[in-house]
Write a structure and sequence with these properties.
Elements: H1 3-7, E1 19-21, E2 24-26, E3 33-38, E4 43-49, H2 53-70, H3 75-91, H4 93-104, H5 108-129, E5 136-137, E6 143-151, E7 154-159, H6 164-178, E8 181-186, H7 192-203, E9 211-213, H8 218-226, E10 233-237, H9 240-253, E11 256-260, E12 266-269, H10 275-287, E13 299-303, H11 304-319, H12 338-353, E14 358-360, E15 364-365, E16 375-376, E17 379-381, H13 389-392, E18 399-405, H14 408-416, E19 420-421, E20 423-427, H15 431-440, E21 445-448, E22 463-464, E23 467-468, H16 473-478, E24 481-489
Length: 497
Amino acid sequence: MNAPEILAGAPVTDLPDGHFIDGAFTKGASGALMDSYDPGRGSVFARFTNGTEADVDQAVESARIAFQSWARTPAVERATILSNAARLLRESAEQIAIVETLDCGKPLNEALADVRGAARTFDYYAGATDKLQGDTFPLPHGYLGYSVFEPVGVTAHIIPWNFPISTAARGIAPALAAGCTVVAKPAEQTPFSALLLADLLTKAGLPAGVCNVVTGVGANVGAPLVAHKDVDQITFTGSVTTGQHVMRSAADNVTRLVLELGGKSPVIVLDDCDEQAAIDGVLGAIFENAGQVCSAGSRLVIEKGIHDRFIEQLVARTKRLTLGHGLRDPQVGPVNSVQHLAKIAGFIDRARGRGAEVLTGGAITTDPETGQGWFYEPTIVADRPCDDELVQEEIFGPVLTVQVAEDREHALALANNTQFGLVAGVYTSDVSTALQMARDIDAGQIYINEYFAGGIEVPFGGNKLSGFGREKGLEGLKSYCKVKSVAARIGAIAKSW
């Protein structure tokens, strides 16, 4: 399977059409299948299993049984399996990336970077597995106090469609490292990379039942999974509305949660910045994966002193971006579905009705080579007020909204003036200003002079409506642990009452 053959019309073969439960692919209880669409062509390229609550029950039971032995597996053995998985991911990177591109639409080089990042994630947590250790407490003489980290148990992972392999890895790898077992539910738009990952983990030596994947729609699979009484932890990435439903379901069983619910992140560009570096950063922040990124820099907050020349160059660069099917590796690929395309277009249509000035883009389009697919032109909208829908709502597409700041204090106020708080970027040559901004912006992660800086080592998560809890880094590993404290009297026994 290679990109030129697929683009020429060759069928995509050897994809799983079943769930992955108890170490093997298995047909769903209902036998029903769903279509998976190639967004670059707007047509079906494969089918997969549409799961049911019965499939969820089977997967959770498998994970619960497997937990008894996996939690007691020596950390060094778990580390070896995760390292093996990282190696296999690198060996399979091109094939998985092709599937990822077909499933979610992103350019092939972006998909390759995602697979390599997933491999790095398994490497990172392989290295952390045997270094997860507790503390001792300074109790009085005659007492010993210490803590240990224990795995929480069966973990449920609700994986979004925009970064399927990346998001799966950043949750599954630390869960396995901590000694937890997994039931993953990928988005119905992008089921295949999670299935391929589970199979690859088994080939890396993971015992049956430790990692399970159930595919299908949210109502039939996701809802019963997050409400399941035998699930001990839920990691959810998705919309605020769905996240609220997940929280309500989790409350009935007092199930632990990590929620990453998106954002409306600002890129603050100050007068003293390196303007070319800032232009590069702004372009990548909003147009990577066609803007379908939870942490996308979807608001440009720019000081007025450089506004005119900066916007002129930014618009010119945006107009030169290439669009096309992801397997041809353009700069901007399609959006994931025809429904999402209509949602993006609706935002811009309503904005025009309010008098917004669209500086470039602002229309549905297609692959210029084939006339097919679900594409939206890279779009920039001129200065909008703080209460405008384009400023306050997550569009999740290739749409950048400009806000003009009078000075640095105003830029900070604009940056914080939304209900979201996932990430923010700052471009300035003044280190003191950058660190003050980092201190005062209400967001879970701040990028300075490079948007999307960092990697798996850096904890990631949001504040406000962007959710709570942290993934990545050592904080991500601790998310899958519970702390047990032990206090023992080791001196002479006191006289009884």
